[in-house]
Specification:
The structure is a homodimer of 346-residue chains.
Chain A: H1 18-25, H2 29-36, H3 44-57, H4 63-70, E1 75-80, H5 86-101, E2 105-110, H6 117-126, E3 133-136, E4 154-157, E5 167-170, H7 172-185, E6 192-195, H8 201-216, E7 225-226, H9 231-243, E8 249-252, H10 255-267, E9 277-279, E10 296-299, H11 301-318, E11 326-328, E12 330-333
Parallel strand pairs in A: 1-2, 1-3, 3-4, 4-5, 5-11, 6-7, 6-8, 8-9
Antiparallel strand pairs in A: 10-12
Helix pairs in contact in A: 1-2, 1-3, 5-11, 7-8, 9-10
The structure holds a DNA duplex (30 and 30 nucleotides).
DNA sequence: CGGTAACATGTTGACGTCAACATCTACGGA
DNA sequence: TCCGTAGATGTTGACGTCAACATGTTACCG
């Protein structure tokens, strides 16, 4: 009976392993490992032979095996709510770059917005992810109902400080103060505020600082209008502001809502900045080309991302828990959406 | 001499393993594996005991071990150039969601924009990533100089079709035709075009389709103005258009550039849509609140993401290579930035 | 009441890597 | 000459999981 011939061994899909390289180079697997990891106790000639074999076989170390052996995945999870928000996107970008620079991969874990119930299941699955740590880019309040996996190093961006995790964030208070003071300094009697979602700590802090600044200066504090970061909410609240002739200065908690406010003001024929001045927060790329170009508060997402990754990787590698919050400074960018009030009434 | 007491065994950082659970439940590791994977050949009572043990120990399967055993990582890489572009962000979001729904993790691999040289190194490292496949969200032209890892299933979003990888993309031609025809139907003599970067295939196809539509209708084809997707470039080219009184209709290859064009037109006192009509492409959330609200072409990033992930996972699991490009339809969204020309000159 | 199918459960080994330890070689000093 | 030593290289086993196979148990059949 004819033998079953299967060619030169079963064509396995997997790539070449260390042992394949070792065989080809006529050395032991361990030597390949040493070359692969750049250890220096290898004869130059041997190293050459091994490298050649690697090249010939297209050898790539298997990360799964490495991770299994070392217990480290060299990758971190970033948990995001949705990417539509400008800030989140930029933070993610910055975090990914910073992580890559440190040799860590980034696992993107999206949480469905509509079905928040899915959140907890996502989190419970997080424990199964092949990651050494996690960055939470979600509005922190959602964490109330959530149990983070025990023992997984975690850093939160945007938080109340109520949680026992390191926190990295833009200095919200500073930014809101800069925005408010800029408008007051121009001569406005007071400043109205369109806030972010009432459960976001970033939003809360921006609002608190706006209020504080007004109070310090002895100005009346108008009721804050609650938005949700979206352009649409800015427009909605903007309509209210547009109808109120007493409004001469508005501080929106982000640029997107500021855009909505501009839209509403335009629709109602209120001129910007002649009748009403508007300030945003974020300095997204588009803001310089709004009509009129938007005065805003610039925050450094790159720095936030770098600091976040630093804090996380530091905790992963040292096991230590840095509780000190890190705050990244902000900068006022003046464009043409702000000007002195038409008639300085006082 | 006193013994070194170290408590109840060395406190290992690693979580409980299958064997720990097995021991606690008084069964073999294999039975735990069966419960863990939902096989049904386990006595209900035993299953209960195992589940209880899992709960008590907080057991989570180790993905590295699973991956090593099975040769599958259940994760895919998404290679992005930068996240600043709206389209990329939305695609990424959609891909991440679709992948999560299929039980795959997403590895975000950023490629530095400034140092394009880093690109190839990133790619060579890609082989080391613990992924089963890759999605390329980069402008495909960058791939010319790049060697993709052999044998790694890959899908390209935005491509010329020159590569031997499955391609998924919005139907650029259809969208550009809709935009151009909308303006012509309003009575404009012809349509000017601010294109995307000349090396992006999406941009090329939008431009080609714009040109073709004009030609079909026997209209003059003005020179295309080359932008690079950014607001700033839209503004720059917009200045040229604003100075030219012959321009009554503009089709910008994306909403961000359209915003720049609006800015330039405003600055030069050209009214939109009275003097000039403008159409964008993408329908980003902000577009409805530009001033005036932007008429644009809506593309379904969700569908593109889903189709991309489907194609990729399909290839991963079946090993088959679908070469047919997938095109996702577009939709014209009419807002107030377009209107008939002031005086229908003919 | 032996035989055996059907099912629950256990045992073994291999996936690829690398730390720890074991050998082996070459060379210098006494 | 012999030993010690340093450096190169090899051998072994374990990380956690799961497919394949082995064993045990029950129950039903003729």
């Amino acid at each position: 009976m004819a033998e079953l011939k299967r060619g030169p061994g079963p064509r396995r899909r997997r790539g070449a392993s260390m042992l394949d390289v070792a065989r080809l180079a006529g050395v032991s697997g361990q030597t390949v490992s040493r070359v692969s990891n750049g250890h220096d106790n290898v004869e130059p000639a041997t190293r050459e032979r091994v490298l050649a074999a690697m090249r010939e076989l297209g050898y790539r170390p298997n990360r799964a095996a490495r991770a299994l052996r070392s217990g480290q995945f060299r990758s971190i999870a970033v948990i995001v709510f949705e990417l539509s928000s400008f800030g989140t996107t930029r933070s993610l970008d910055a975090i990914a770059s910073a992580a890559a620079a440190r040799g860590y991969a980034v696992d993107l874990i999206p949480v469905l917005s509509a079905t928040e119930e899915r959140l907890s299941s996502t989190f419970s699955e997080l424990g199964e992810q092949a990651v050494d740590g996690a960055v939470i880019l979600i509005e922190a309040h959602l964490l109330d109902e959530i149990r983070l996996p025990d023992g997984l190093p975690t850093v939160i961006v945007d938080s109340s400080g109520l949680f026992d995790y390191p926190i990295v964030d833009t200095d919200q208070a500073q930014g809101a103060r800069q925005a408010t003071e800029h408008l007051l300094d121009l001569g406005h009697e007071t400043v109205w505020h369109v806030s972010g979602p009432p459960k976001s700590y970033s939003a809360i802090r921006r609002q608190a600082s706006w209020e504080e600044t007004l109070t310090e200066r002895g100005r009346p504090v108008p009721p804050a209008l609650a938005g949700d970061w979206s352009v649409g909410s800015g427009y909605r609240e903007g309509l209210t502001l547009a109808r109120n002739d007493a409004v001469t200065a508005v501080f929106a908690a982000n640029d997107q809502m500021a855009l909505g406010v501009l839209h509403a003001l335009h629709e109602h024929g209120r001129r910007v900045p002649v009748d009403v001045s508007v300030v945003g927060f974020d300095d997204m790329e588009e803001s310089a080309h709004f009509w009129p170009p938007l005065t805003t508060i610039r925050q450094s997402f790159v720095e936030v991302g770098r600091a976040t990754v630093d804090a996380l990787i530091n905790e992963i590698q040292s096991g230590e828990h840095h509780r000190d919050p890190v705050h990244i400074g902000t900068e006022l960018v003046v464009r043409s959406s702000t000007a002195p009030p038409r008639s300085t009434s006082r």
